[in-house]
């Protein structure tokens, strides 16, 4: 536990120091999105990595958080700090309600149900024009502020977002090492066996689903207040798939894996920017290669590679 | 008037005092285009046009002796990316002005950044919201949707068509058109009998059209960009609907006729910028010469047909280079210069900006055309 | 009296119009649903042979259309030759994908395979964009564009092609899986891979064959639908998604249930758009599908299974 804490502190320190290296430029804006995506990936990892339940609709919860925050502050003039928990609570309730029938499904039926849920949410954003502004989006969302400090620059927003992201990391660290985490892993291995030893699998799955949705909603609210503009296109099916990719590429069921995945997939397009039209090809090829050569994700990939290399070396020496 | 005077004087002063210093320098222009993704048909010609114009300008010795440097990024049509890249252009590349982004959604997302950093941007998005109300640093070159809508409704009034069925796409372009159509139809005494929509990736719209057919409107107005309208045109033919079909300026390219097929597209009426019909214009038309040149230059460089969408970038570049010529190369000078553009002849029309009007085009930017035998013909 | 008759006449014409309208929705829905069905069957074949949900399935639909266009316009082949060439080339692409990406995978967990096929689909789409550009293209219809009237509704000859080809493909499939040795071997793989390999079935060959068959089916779907919907490098995503739904509604069967799934989805969309709201048509389709799944968590056509632990 102590080692875990040290690891976390080192990570937090790293996060705090990074902006100094990029001197307030554009990179910090990208890193801000790494923070938001880290929150989302951790949320999905709780569901997928620990409880073994797939979701292809998490972009919907992300969008709901963003839109609820946006609408409550722009249309109804709420204080952003009030809108954020209100949105999270609403999304949590909705996910809880939907969770009961949805999580009764398994395997690809579950994939399809969550996919459908995500698409329905996306369509609602597009169609309720009076409320959401429809496809043209919702603009004029206020920045967050504490007293006289307004989070209106990338640098300030970076620290704001990463504060929340670090709290999420800490939270998932706690879940992983708690009774709940173990119960979830048991469900992942065998739901029936978990039930037999007295885990209320159904309720626990719904709870983790709702929790995951709440984190997504918070990330969505932060996104809305940082960007000050939102449109449905950011919350479609493709983004749900991207989140899934982040979690798997990073490493399922680990605490820092989602961060690695989020960082890689957010930074990769920036690195590939010079490649013009070739970027999409390289991106696709990299995904394929990563799964082929690091099936355990980034977080396990490097130790694994090293071990394999060492083994090969050892083998040579023996010969 | 007074402001224009002040602007001119300050511009002159700058030229007098630092002319030599500036002459040696370069001006960086940022370009944000949706070169890939769903809006690539808008962004790609825009980027190509911009690259072409910068190259030409530098070959001719730059503007006022200053070389131009283009920094271009692909947003993929994504609002988040657009904001990040706008920040990159401003903070890292230190551009003086931004040309783009391509779509309305991206533009709305980038506006707060441009306003905060006081860097002028000229959007290539069509949505009215971009410049209404007018923002300090934000301009746009495509004519506002309501100009196109007014043109169509004016034409319909002439034909005594009173009832309309709408069929619009559920993206930024369609939503903006739908809003303007509903608003202006009400003001001008038209009745909207049906208000149907379709998704940008939908492949069959017979259901919507069957419903519209049963309502029997005087006209159908479709608002979208390819390929949706081409599918709709074919569906209309399939269902044997004889009601006049109007399209938006979003399909004013030969591409649309090619996709829908000349037979199905026969008789479709739409408003278009003058680029599509440049060879029908009289010699005395102020835009005629410029349009012909643009089409030729574009074809020489890329072996493709120049499109209205590339024209938006042309307009933006014209506004910028005109501003640099008259004012100077700092962001604020460029901004003032653009705002003071007057009777500037370009591809989409003749621009006259003012502090209240950051679009600068009026009804004369469009002509109504009818598709006849796979070609455009002026509709009277 | 006269008034009464007039009224009843009005009701009658109203009724007949209603009927032709609904028939139109039905026919439109069935023909687009048939495409979903073909793509869905492709999903199911691979799933049954390998347990992989191949998210790149939609890209083979795109490849079918784009390759036909390529053979037609670039190589100036006639349509009857361009189509088999396009199917052959797409099939080759499917086999290549299996050999290069799926087979060498060291730890093939289901979720890794999902990401792998997603990566593959991005890769294929990107390559298509580089090779053929970003424009949308039209492909000529197989037998003209003259509408055919059926009871007040109209369809195009191409719709008949779609329905006919779908029927043919499904019957050939059924024959293959029930009557031929390799088809039965593939079914054996679906039931139990280890047992299949123990009785001497080359499971690896079967996996490759499943990719070949489903990419061919995807290509066929792409080719027959292209004259109606046009084709571009990015059409695969949406169609793939719908095909995936069709397959799931059909319980991942490679036969009639998936075809039914596709048709139900197509008709739901078209009826939803015509009778309720065009904006919510996809949402309506999904809500109905979700409700059905909630009521029958084992799939529409599946029997409840007891899980062995």
Pair of chains with the largest interface and how many residues each contributes? A-C, 47 and 46 residues
Oligomer description: heterotrimer
Mean pLDDT of chain C: 87
Mean pLDDT of chain A: 89
Low-confidence residue ranges of chain A = 315-319
Ends of chain C: how far apart? Answer: 75 Å
Class from helix and strand fractions of chain C: mainly alpha
Count the E strands of chain A: 4
The percent range for strand residues of chain A is under 5%
Silhouette of chain A = globular
How would you characterize this protein structure?
The complex is a heterotrimer of chains A (319), B (380) and C (309). Chain A is mainly α and 319 residues long. Chain A is 76% helix and 3% strand. Chain A has a domain at 26-239. Chain A contains 14 helices and 4 strands. In chain A, the strands form 2 sheets. Chain A has a two-stranded antiparallel sheet with strand order 1-4. Chain B folds into 2 domains: 2-144 and 292-361, 3-Layer(aba) Sandwich (Rossmann fold), CATH 3.40.50; 145-279 and 366-378, Rossmann fold (3-Layer(aba) Sandwich). Helix content of chain B is 46%, strand content 18%. Chain B contains 13 helices and 14 strands. A 5-stranded parallel beta sheet of chain B has the order 2-1-3-4-5, sandwiched between helices. A 4-stranded parallel beta sheet of chain B has the order 7-6-8-9, sandwiched between helices. In chain B, helix 5 (145-158) crosses helix 6. Chain C has a domain at 42-132 and 153-265. In chain C, a hairpin with a 2-residue loop joins strand 1 (148-150) and strand 2. Chains A and C meet through helix 5, helix 11 and helix 13 of A and helix 4, helix 9 and helix 11 of C.
């Amino acid at each position: 536990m102590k080692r875990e804490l040290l690891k976390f502190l080192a990570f937090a320190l790293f996060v705090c120091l990074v902006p100094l290296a990029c001197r307030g430029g554009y990179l910090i804006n990208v890193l801000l999105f790494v923070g938001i995506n880290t929150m989302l990936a951790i949320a999905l990892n709780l569901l997928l990595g620990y409880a073994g339940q797939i979701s292809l609709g998490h972009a919907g919860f992300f969008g709901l958080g963003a839109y609820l925050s946006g609408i409550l502050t722009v249309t109804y003039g709420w204080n952003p700090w009030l809108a954020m928990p209100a949105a999270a609570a609403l999304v949590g309730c909705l996910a809880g309600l939907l969770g009961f029938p949805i999580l009764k499904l398994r395997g690809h039926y579950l994939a399809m149900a969550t996919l459908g849920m995500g698409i329905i949410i996306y369509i609602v954003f597009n169609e309720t024009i009076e409320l959401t502004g429809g496809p043209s989006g919702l603009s004029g969302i206020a920045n967050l502020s504490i007293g006289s400090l307004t989070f209106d620059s990338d640098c300030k927003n970076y620290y704001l977002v990463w504060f929340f992201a670090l709290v999420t990391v800490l939270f998932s660290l706690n879940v992983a090492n708690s009774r709940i985490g173990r119960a979830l892993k048991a469900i992942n291995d065998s739901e029936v066996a978990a039930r037999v030893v007295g885990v209320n699998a159904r309720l626990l799955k719904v709870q983790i689903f709702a929790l995951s949705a709440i984190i997504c909603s918070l990330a969505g609210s932060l996104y809305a207040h940082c960007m000050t503009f939102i449109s449905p296109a950011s919350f479609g099916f493709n983004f749900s798939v991207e989140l899934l990719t982040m979690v798997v590429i990073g490493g399922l069921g680990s605490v820092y894996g989602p961060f690695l995945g989020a960082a890689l997939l957010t930074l990769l397009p920036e690195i590939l920017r010079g490649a013009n039209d070739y970027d999409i090809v390289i991106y696709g090829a990299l995904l394929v290669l990563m799964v082929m050569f690091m099936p355990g994700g980034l977080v396990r990939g490097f130790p694994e590679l090293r071990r394999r290399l060492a083994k090969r070396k050892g083998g040579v020496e023996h010969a | 008037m007074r402001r224009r005077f002040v602007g001119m004087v300050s511009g002159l002063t700058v030229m007098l005092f630092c002319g030599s210093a500036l002459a040696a320098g370069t001006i960086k222009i940022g370009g944000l285009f949706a070169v890939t993704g769903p809006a690539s048909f808008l962004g790609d010609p825009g980027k190509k046009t911009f690259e072409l114009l910068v190259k030409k300008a530098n070959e001719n010795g730059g503007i006022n002796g200053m070389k131009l440097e283009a920094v271009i990024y692909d947003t993929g049509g994504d609002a988040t990316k657009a904001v990040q890249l706008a920040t990159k252009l401003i903070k890292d590349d230190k551009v003086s002005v931004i040309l783009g982004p391509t779509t309305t959604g991206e533009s709305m997302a980038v506006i707060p950044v441009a306003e905060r950093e006081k860097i002028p941007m000229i959007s290539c998005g069509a949505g009215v919201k971009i410049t209404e109300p007018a923002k300090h640093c934000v301009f746009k070159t495509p004519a506002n949707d309501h100009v196109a809508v007014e043109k169509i409704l004016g034409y319909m009034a002439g034909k005594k068509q009173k009832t309309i069925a709408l069929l619009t796409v559920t993206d930024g372009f369609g939503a903006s058109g739908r809003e303007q159509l509903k608003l202006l139809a009400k003001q001008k005494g038209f009745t909207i009998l049906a208000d149907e929509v379709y998704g940008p990736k939908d492949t069959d719209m017979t259901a919507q059209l069957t419903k519209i057919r049963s309502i029997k409107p005087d006209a159908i107005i479709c608002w979208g960009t390819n390929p949706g309208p081409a599918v709709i045109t074919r569906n209309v033919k399939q269902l044997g609907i004889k009601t006049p079909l109007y399209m938006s300026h979003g399909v004013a390219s030969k591409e649309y006729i090619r996709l829908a097929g000349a037979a199905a597209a026969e008789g479709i009426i739409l408003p278009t910028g003058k680029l599509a019909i440049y060879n029908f214009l009289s010699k005395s038309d102020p835009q005629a010469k410029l349009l012909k040149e643009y089409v030729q230059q574009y074809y020489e460089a890329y072996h493709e047909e120049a499109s209205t969408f590339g024209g938006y970038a042309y307009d933006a570049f014209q506004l910028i280079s005109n501003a640099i010529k008259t004012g100077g190369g700092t962001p604020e000078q460029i901004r003032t210069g653009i705002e003071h553009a007057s009777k500037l002849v370009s591809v989409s029309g003749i621009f006259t900006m003012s502090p209240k009007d950051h679009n600068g085009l009026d009804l004369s930017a469009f002509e109504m055309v009818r598709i006849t035998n796979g070609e455009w013909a002026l509709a009277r | 009296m006269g008034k009464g008759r007039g009224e009843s006449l009005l009701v009658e014409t109203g009724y007949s119009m209603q009927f032709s309208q609904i028939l139109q929705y039905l026919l439109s829905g069935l023909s687009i649903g048939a495409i979903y069905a073909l793509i869905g069957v492709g999903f199911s074949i691979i799933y049954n042979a390998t347990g992989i949900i191949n998210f790149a399935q939609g890209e083979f639909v795109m490849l079918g259309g784009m390759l036909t266009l390529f053979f037609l316009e670039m190589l100036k082949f006639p349509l009857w030759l361009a189509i088999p060439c396009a199917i052959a080339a797409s099939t080759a692409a499917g086999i290549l994908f299996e050999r290069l990406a799926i087979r060498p995978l060291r730890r093939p967990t289901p979720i890794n395979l999902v990401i792998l096929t997603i990566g593959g689909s991005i890769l294929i789409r990107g390559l298509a964009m580089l090779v053929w550009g970003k424009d949308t293209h039209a492909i000529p219809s197989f037998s003209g564009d003259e509408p055919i009237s059926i009871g007040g509704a109209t369809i195009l000859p191409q719709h008949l092609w779609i329905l006919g080809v779908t029927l043919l493909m499904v019957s050939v499939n059924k024959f293959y899986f029930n009557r031929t040795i390799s088809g039965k071997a593939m079914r054996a793989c679906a039931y139990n891979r280890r047992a299949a390999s123990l009785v001497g079935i080359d499971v690896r060959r079967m996996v490759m064959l499943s990719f070949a068959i489903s990419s061919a089916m995807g290509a066929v779907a792409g080719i027959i639908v292209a004259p109606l919907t046009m084709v571009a490098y990015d059409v695969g995503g949406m169609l793939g998604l719908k095909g995936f739904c069709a397959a799931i509604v059909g319980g991942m069967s490679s036969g009639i249930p998936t075809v039914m799934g596709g048709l139900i989805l197509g008709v739901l969309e078209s009826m939803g758009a015509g009778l309720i709201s065009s904006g919510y048509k996809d949402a309506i389709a999904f809500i109905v599908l979700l409700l059905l799944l909630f009521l029958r968590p084992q799939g529409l056509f599946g029997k409840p299974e007891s899980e062995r632990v």
